[in-house]
Design brief:
The complex is a heterotrimer of chains A (214), B (320) and C (533). With 214 residues, chain A is mainly α. Chain A is built from 6 helices and no strands. The longest helix of chain A has 36 residues. Chain C is mainly alpha-helical and 533 residues long. The two termini of chain C are 40 Å apart. The chains are: A mainly alpha (214), B alpha+beta (320), C mainly alpha (533).
């Protein structure tokens, strides 16, 4: 979005770097709004089907592994903390600390996806697949396939967001390493941070909705 | 008959009469407000057209009285229309005393009409004049919409659930049924007829004793040959929706030259289209699917009599 | 300040490559111009084919299947390729920054990305049309038909998803631009109404489009994985798709019409040399419409079996939209009062807009009344109504805007005579085509019918003949634009004697829009002399 070359302080159509930063921030927040609207569609769909089939949702959700889900929640929350610390470090002109924090965030994201991978393969094994591929015979509630459709679609789209987040974090890491940022120029770090917080926030909703159904 | 009349749709139900009253109110209100607004604009354009360059114009940024009055007047009018529409609508859909219930199932691309007394019709419906009717609908495949323009009512038929359509017909006669929710393929062929008859005649019809005043298509008029009767059935039993008689392709294979021909099936076999094949294809269409065509045809078991099948086969034989 | 400050943006650099990777909002606007006009012609050809097929009952020129594909393509192309990107993409891109005194949009690279996402979306659609066997679902993709049909729905859906992303990024860019790049003195209430309209549109693009995005992804997943959300066989609810679809697609109607309304405010004030009547009311009604548009989606589903309460509320809110729309109409007409009215082509189109949009709006009230909708829903009355709004509204306003800003965009004057011929043909053809469809709808002819009962033949033929007149008028327009761009008279800086900021720079504008950043000291429509000083 915004490029901070050494020779050019800010893009030609802005008055100053602060001006450009302010515009970028508006843009980023609007983008986050679209992300929330995107997931809202899924949440509304979930709400409707939970209302229609409360028994089925209750029975089906026991198939999810609450321990792994909880670990993943903690992992993502810690990654949000380190992301915030990374921004803080850049603001205080401490690129080395920022790099450590970014690396830790990246590792957390990897851990999250690894755990997700194990959860998924377990579900595949049990035949707990979405929609027409569903082949489990143990669950008694009718239409249990719907729950797993929600599970895979919601965590799948979230997982794609985690992947994109990891790519962004890696890109930021490289740029910090290159010395692109200092306490006056850190737009990109801040924006990736905002994005990463939204990815976490979505998980904070997904976890109770899918793992802790009442 | 084609015409350029503005209104050539009969009104044959209680709701149609109410509909027409509100429609006329709307048309008059709209024309009045259109003429007031656009007419004023037209007068301004004529009166204040530019006569020379650099004319002075007054600076009128707003006029709160005019703005308030226009907003107020608009709100009042649309509030009246909203309440009127709601009032009529809640009456259209409200359960009535002594409703006669009819079941309708939509499927690509025909309507099956079932009566509690045991009759089953296709794309055809008999209703008694003057008695409230409740049509209970669902669909076998995709969403359809049961629409009777002369009654001014319609309702979607949604797979997996029941929906209701209510009306009280008040004029005898035959009226169109359309499908008004796009359902693919032969959507525009998913049409039928509703016969509004006197209550006595309706009872007779239920008992199998009714003869329509004008011979319905396919009914056995003594002068008709078997093939002529088959032609009537070809239309009234909706074969026409999917099968042509001129060799062109619709949803199903054409009837032209069908009898006696060799038919290739989707499992690779070839059969000769003789009487037994034609009969089976009518009563159990899924048994043999012609190669390159979808397994789409509804089962006509119970919807056509043996006499009807004979007539249809006789008709197909004439299509060389 | 750039060294090329006083060279116009066409001459600032040359070569195809400089056009294709340009970051200049004006050039991107021109790219959108070519793309969306081409889309309009393609969508129009499908419309003509559909009308020709309906010239007689039964088969006329094509098979049933091809007819179903033709109207699907007409709808999808006109909506997603043309009408949503056209006005924001061309006129919004070109003029929004100039009208607020900015040098560019806030995020030029993102702007170029939006354009290429649109192209990519079109390419995915086209791939589906060529490689698969087209789509036959109608542009609304209703389930469960769209799940069951053998046609190529996925390419249609993914293409639209990409175009939706393009629309979101455009909206986001315009909001950020409007918030941060207004020149000194350009307060919110000194912004031209076109900017307000584009701003309101952008809000809708950002808030509503993600919902269609997720809906279409779910539909694609439904076809790939059979997830069952919309499939009754797996416990899903097909009507839920309609709710999701219209939650976007109703606001999308305002994404389509609001920019057009903005154009009308500009053209009417300029050609009557008079300040707009009720500036704040017109600006507020844009935002009001944008807001209410989120609450009325269910009026597309009055006969779907949704609950009584839902029908009551959706009908009520639908009626409420009549008020801000009427406010705009009244204020536009009042603006003409005691003006100095010049009937140049843009003004003819703007006045034509008042005429056709009034009909579109009034017939919308018919459809909002529940008992009336029981009959009109899904008939040609609906088809006629939304063409009066979309074509009689947006497209007419779009033509008005193209003629109005043609001198600024190209530096040449269009041919006035051809422009007027264009208008007269269009106006006559349009009203014949769609008035006839109102009559068909009143008499109960359902939409999307390949075949119809013989009694409907007469009005169908009238409508088809009307469509030929429209086609002729569009040919005249395209000829006028191409010929004038090449051979037209050189345009002065301000041919219409307008007070708008965009007319204070060269025609065509310089690379950074103004030689010196302007300072604004008054509102956008300061025509005339105060009555009470």
């Amino acid at each position: 979005m915004s490029s901070t070359h050494a020779k050019l302080d800010h893009a030609h159509h802005f008055n100053s770097a602060d001006h450009e930063f302010a515009a970028g921030k508006i843009g980023m927040w609007l983008f986050l709004v679209t992300e929330i609207m995107l997931f809202s569609g899924l949440f509304v769909g979930y709400g409707i089907f939970h209302y229609i089939y409360p028994e089925m949702f209750r029975e089906a959700h026991h198939e999810l592994n609450k321990v792994l889900g909880s670990i993943n929640t903690i992992v993502l929350l810690s990654s949000s903390l380190t992301m915030a610390l990374a921004i803080n470090a850049i603001q205080r002109d401490k690129p080395e600390l920022a790099k450590k924090m970014l690396a830790f965030t990246f590792l957390c994201a990897c851990t999250f996806l690894c755990i997700k991978f194990f959860e998924y393969s377990h579900k595949f094994h049990e035949g707990l697949l979405p929609g027409k591929f569903y082949s489990n015979t143990e669950l008694k509630a009718p239409n249990a396939a719907l729950f797993f459709s929600f599970y895979f679609v919601m965590t799948g789209i979230h997982g794609i967001h985690v992947l994109i987040g990891m790519a962004c974090i890696a890109w930021i890491y490289i740029r910090v390493n290159r010395g692109d940022f200092d306490s006056h120029h850190y737009n990109a770090v801040e924006f990736v941070g905002l994005y990463w917080h939204i990815v976490d926030l979505v998980w904070i909703f997904l976890f109770p909705l899918l793992y802790l159904v009442v | 008959m084609s015409s350029l009349a503005l209104n050539f749709l009969p009104a044959a139900s209680v709701s149609a009469d109410k509909f027409n009253l509100l429609l006329h109110f709307l048309i008059v209100t709209s024309i009045v407000s259109f003429v007031l607004c656009i007419g004023a604009g037209f007068i301004f354009v004529v009166k204040y057209r530019r006569r020379r360059d650099n004319e002075h114009t007054p600076y009128i940024p707003h006029n709160y009285l005019v703005e308030f009055l226009s907003i107020f007047a608009t709100s009042v009018v649309v509030a009246i229309i909203f309440l009127w529409g709601w009032y009529d609508y809640s009456d259209f859909i409200a359960p009535k005393l002594g409703e006669y219930e009819i079941n309708v199932i939509g499927q690509q691309w025909s309507w099956t009409v079932q009566y509690a007394e045991g009759k089953t019709l296709m794309n055809e419906m008999y209703v008694p004049r003057g008695r409230p009717v409740r049509v209970i609908m669902t669909s076998k495949d995709v969403t359809h919409d049961f629409f009777i323009p002369a009654f001014r009512v319609k309702q979607d038929a949604v797979p997996g659930q029941y929906t209701n359509l209510r009306f009280t017909a008040n004029k005898t006669g035959d009226y169109d049924i359309f499908c008004a929710q796009y359902c693919g393929g032969a959507h525009s062929g998913m049409i039928g007829i509703v016969h509004v008859v006197e209550p006595d005649d309706f009872q007779k019809w239920l008992d199998g004793m009714y003869r329509a005043p004008v011979a319905a298509a396919g009914a056995a008029a003594p002068t008709m040959t078997l093939a002529e009767r088959g032609h009537g059935l070809y239309q009234s039993k909706t074969c026409v929706t999917c099968h042509t008689i001129d060799g062109s392709r619709l949803i199903g294979p054409t009837f032209k030259g069908l009898y006696g021909s060799k038919v290739e099936l989707n499992d690779g076999q070839t059969v000769v289209a003789d009487e037994n094949y034609l009969r089976e294809s009518i009563v159990a269409p899924m048994a043999k699917i012609v190669k390159g065509y979808p397994p789409q045809m509804p089962m006509f078991t119970g919807l056509v009599s043996d006499e009807d099948i004979n007539a249809l086969i006789a008709y197909i034989k004439t299509l060389k | 300040m750039s060294h090329a400050a006083n060279v116009n943006f066409y001459k600032a650099s040359s070569g195809l490559k400089n056009w294709l990777i340009t970051l200049d909002h004006k050039r991107i606007g021109i790219l959108y111009l070519y793309t969306t006009l081409l889309s309009f012609v393609i969508g129009g050809i499908f419309a003509l084919l559909v009308r020709l097929e309906l010239f007689t009952p039964g088969p006329t020129i094509m098979s049933q299947q091809n007819y179903n594909r033709a109207f699907t393509l007409h709808g999808a192309i006109m909506v997603f390729w043309f009408i949503i990107p056209a006005v924001p993409g061309i006129l919004g891109n070109f003029f929004l920054p100039i009208m607020i005194g900015a040098k560019d949009v806030a995020f030029p690279k993102l702007n170029l990305l939006s354009y290429y996402l649109l192209i990519l979306g079109m390419a995915v659609n086209l791939y589906g049309l060529m490689a698969g066997n087209g789509a036959d679902t109608g542009w609304t993709f209703y389930t469960p038909y769209s799940i069951r049909t053998g046609a190529n729905v996925v390419s249609m859906v993914l293409g639209v998803f990409l175009m939706g992303f393009s629309s979101i990024l455009t909206g986001l860019n315009f909001i950020a631009t409007t918030h941060t790049l207004r020149c000194p003195g350009m307060t919110w209430f000194r912004m031209p109404l076109f900017v307000w309209a584009i701003y309101a549109t952008a809000v809708l693009q950002v808030f509503a489009t993600p919902v269609i995005g997720i809906t279409l992804l779910l539909l694609a997943a439904e076809r790939f994985l059979g997830i069952g959300f919309f499939d009754p066989k797996l416990g899903g609810d097909p009507v839920l798709f309609q709710h999701f679809f219209w939650f976007y697609s109703h606001p999308a109607v305002y994404i389509m019409i609001l920019p057009g309304m903005g154009i009308i405010s500009e053209v009417l004030t300029t050609f009557s040399q008079k300040t707009i009547f009720g500036y704040k009311a017109v600006a507020a009604s844009s935002l009001g419409l944008a807001f209410v548009s989120f609450l009325v989606w269910g009026h597309h589903m009055f006969t779907s079996g949704q609950s009584l309460v839902a029908n009551f509320l959706f009908s009520l809110f639908t009626m409420a939209t009549a008020v801000p729309s009427a406010v705009k109409m009244f204020n536009w007409v009042a603006t003409l009062y005691k003006g100095s009215i010049s009937l140049k082509t843009p003004m003819l189109f703007a006045l034509g807009f008042l005429f056709t949009f009034a009909i579109g709006g009034l017939t919308g009230i018919f459809l909002g009344a529940l008992s009336i909708d029981m009959h009109f829903q899904a008939t040609y009355f609906v088809v006629a109504h939304f063409h009066y709004v979309m074509m009689g509204g947006t497209v007419v306003a779009f033509f008005a805007g193209l003629y109005y800003w043609f001198p600024k965009m190209t530096g040449k004057m269009y041919n006035e005579m051809l422009g007027r011929v264009n208008f007269v043909l269009f106006f006559i053809g349009f009203n014949i085509t769609f008035m006839a469809q109102f009559v068909l709808g009143v008499n109960g002819m359902p939409r999307r019918y390949y075949d119809y009962l013989p009694k409907y033949t007469g009005w169908n033929q009238v409508s088809t003949v009307g469509s030929w007149i429209i086609a002729l008028s569009v040919i005249v327009m395209l000829f006028n634009f191409i010929w004038s761009a090449l051979h037209g008279e050189k345009a002065p800086m301000n041919p219409w004697n307008s007070k708008g900021l965009e007319w204070t720079t060269q025609s065509p504008p310089v690379l950074e829009n103004f030689e010196h950043t302007p300072t604004v000291t008054a509102g956008p429509y300061e025509y005339g002399t105060p009555v009470h000083a």
